[in-house]
Amino acid sequence: MSASRYRIVQSSAASRVAATLGLIVLAALVLAPYWAGRSDLRLLGEILLYLSLASLWNLLAGYAGLVSVGQQAFVGLGGYALFGLTIFGGLNPIVAVLAAGVIGGLVAMPVAALIFRLRGAYFAIGTWVMAEVFRLVAAQVSALGGGSGTSLPTAVVQSIADGRDAREATSYWLALAMAVLVLAVIYAVLRSRKGLALTAIRDNELAARSLGIDIWRTKFTIYVIVGALTAAVGALIFLQKLRISPDAAFSVNDWTAFVIFIVVIGGIGTVEGPIIGVIVFFLLRETLADLGTTYLIILGTFAIGVMLLAPKGLWGMVRARSDIQLFALRRKVVAKLKD
Amino acid sequence: MATILQLDQVSKAFGAVTVADGLSYQLQSGEALGVIGPNGAGKTSMFNLITGTMSPDSGRIVLAGEDITRMSAARRCRAGIARSFQVPQPFGGMTVFENAMVAATQGADLSLRAAERHCLQILEQTQLIAKANVPAGKLTLLERKRLELTRALCAKPKLLLLDEIAGGLTEGECIALVETIKAVHAGGMTIIWIEHVVHALLSVVDRLVVIDFGRKVADGEPQQIMASQQVQEIYLGIDANG
Predict the structure, then answer these.
(1) The pLDDT of residue B237
(2) Which chain A residue's Cα is nearest to B116?
(3) What stretches of chain B adopt beta strand conformation (E)?
(4) Does residue B170 sit in the same domain as residue B151?
(5) In principle, which of A136, A220, B17, B83 could form an S-S bond with B161, CB 3.0–4.6 Å?
(6) Is there a contact between B82 and A213 if contact means CB atoms under 8 Å apart?
(7) Domain containing B19 — which CATH number?
């Protein structure tokens, strides 16, 4: 066949270098409990959980076009599932994190069926309303402290690991494992046939439909996957915090506004964007944390600046100048050498 | 030859505007049907009705014996209908090759490996292989039209719908495109082609349908139809009684 004159290459020099560097960083992160102090370890764990949330929101909004401002519904749901399952179900906390993920996925199904009837801005508001409903329901659960919340009982905390250092290391490693899992799932989805469908939907829904893509089902699948993983991340967040309340669990600021900031700054609709965004966000936060309210003003100004000067985010700015990519997603056609 | 497509009294109106008015015809497998008619006659609407991006008020559409009138656009593509859009609808952030891969993996339901082989083959056939790695958003208008054809072919259709694919091309480009479409047709593909560039159309199709105000006003052998008074009236504004 004449087609044999060409072949497909998926990796590039940049993606191979990035993969190698990624493995080195990962090795360093795995060993972090041995080289980082307690507060640094907590910060690293928080960064990893925010990386997970941002990457998931990016898959949802940047690829599936589902601009949700209610993902705190699943963070809170996961957190409350962890507390409920460990306190009343007697489950091991680590098992409870997995179970929270399953619950998140199951709850996402009817939620999707309901809010997928809404479009654009109405969809966004709908997700937020849904999250508020979740918060109000959580406040009614008097066994978990109602509106004022509750702490994880000592017995449960001790069952994570013996001693405070071991416990903090375990919860850090769980956060690291979660971030790796989230990135791996996103990478696998985007490389698959489903990923092609998803990217097509991102670019043009009319053409996607006409080429055989069931848009509703594709979006539904992504919404459920993201719901499940977001709930598992939520469980880990509150496993670190050891205390939960409706306002903290379903905070639109903490679990959605900051996450959107990260994705928009980094570059929406790219796998690299949330990684860059999370680094920038924490650099800003850690250097400006002492400024109080001024910190939020600077954050907002920075976001506006990026949106005006680089609407596709920092990574989008890089992509506009070269077709570099750190994750080997692109299929490149190259001519075979004559043999 | 088997009937591949049947339109049976298909009608569609938006308020006072009728885009399809009791439209009926049958298409045999392997046929190449040309469709002409004035702007706004309902030609593209007919494609929208066949592909399922628009649903008829009444009537039936049958593909290879199966009633597809209520089937979604996505399922119709998987059942074997692919189209090119008059106004190109590329996946702008994806490369030309990835655009083709979407059609091959979703519309034709091929595995990634099989899709890669199929797309390379089609890209060579449509002479877009040199642009394979270019983001579709950066293509010129002519390349976008060729991408429309490529993508439709990558979906491995039984029925190929082409919507004004030759419009705006230079003479040389038009000849090259006609050769490609001829080759596709020679391979046994059933084609419906809407085109204003009549000489390009007539060099490929073996039957012609004329549509005006959503109605089929003529159907038959292309040369006869073109010579008929009815077409002269509609197309050239010649008054038959004048």
Answers:
(1) 64
(2) A8
(3) 3-14, 17-28, 32-36, 58-63, 66-67, 81-83, 159-163, 190-194, 207-212, 215-220
(4) no
(5) B83
(6) no
(7) 3.40.50.300
